[in-house]
Specification:
alpha/beta, 7-stranded parallel β-sheet, 10 helices
């Protein structure tokens, strides 16, 4: 059994986008304008969902991409194909961000392939619904924190020696960081930690010319939800409680990740953008 297989949760996560119906919409909605020309981005959880949409948009804007994924080789290969179809280079790296050693390998393989790291997108995450706090096992609690927040620390530690002034880090938090979620106690807690991590890391790195921001999506149609991350009842009404009355698509979130990674956001650090269907969170 591989290191990756030993560390994954018992649930069938993160799930295959290739098997999801209807398919999430990842396609960029507009022509590129070279806002990331010749940049190199590492995107964790880039095999599907928001990560795939971000990889596609970054490639359209001129970036080469290291696609980090956990298990879904078919999905990762498709994301690689999408990046290459935009005329950019891509590599796939099978790794668990919950392992510090694997995060160091991600950085090393990216440097070997591209010679630099300009952007880190910490997007990988997992969630597991539980109706009562007593239903959350010790293993699940540790694993959720290990993936969702420890993994971000490990990835930043791995790439930090290679980031120069002008680099950008974009973390994926969640609307649940601000609203809470009665079925996702451990997940929403990690997202609160990510929001605080983003603000604190920004203070730590801004003097070096490295910007750190985050995106807090609302309900987005990705494999994370139907493949174990949400109850059947929740899926039947997924996104209906937003002001827009529907879930978002990955390509409606990706532009927020692009804005925070490029020079358009040169005066922004420690901030969070909220593509969430109109929910007001005042955060």
């Amino acid at each position: 059994m591989s290191d990756t297989q030993e560390m994954i949760h018992e649930d069938a996560l993160p799930g295959h986008e290739s098997r999801l119906e209807p398919k999430p919409e990842w396609q960029p909605r507009y022509s590129g304008s070279e806002r990331l020309k010749d940049k190199v981005a590492i995107i964790t959880g880039a095999d599907s969902g928001i990560g795939r949409a971000v990889a596609a948009l970054y490639a359209r804007e001129g970036a080469d991409v290291a696609i980090v994924y956990l298990l879904e080789e078919e999905d990762a290969a498709e994301t690689k194909r999408i990046v290459e179809a935009e005329g950019r280079k891509a590599i796939t790296i099978k790794a668990d961000v919950g392992s510090k050693k694997m995060c160091e390998r991600i950085a090393a393989q990216t440097l070997e392939a591209f010679g630099r790291i300009d952007i880190l997108v910490n997007n990988a995450g997992e969630q597991h619904p539980d109706e009562d706090i007593t239903d959350i096992t010790e293993e699940q609690l540790q694993r959720t924190f290990q993936t969702n927040i420890f993994g971000m620390f490990y990835m930043v530690q791995a790439v930090r020696p290679h980031l120069k002034a002008g680099a950008a880090i974009v973390n994926c938090t969640s609307v649940t960081s601000y609203q809470g979620s009665k079925e996702l106690l451990d997940y929403s807690s990690t997202k609160g930690a990510i929001t605080a991590f983003t603000r604190s890391l920004s203070e730590n790195l801004v003097g070096e010319g490295i910007r750190v921001n985050a995106v807090a999506p609302g309900p987005i149609w990705t494999p994370l939800n139907p493949c174990g991350g949400a109850s059947q009842e929740k899926l039947e009404h997924f996104g209906e409680n937003t002001p827009m009355g529907r879930p978002g698509q990955p390509n409606e979130v990706a532009p927020a990740f692009l804005f925070l990674a490029c020079e358009d956001a040169s005066y922004m650090s420690g901030q969070v953008l909220h593509p969430n269907g109109g929910t007001i969170v005042n955060g």
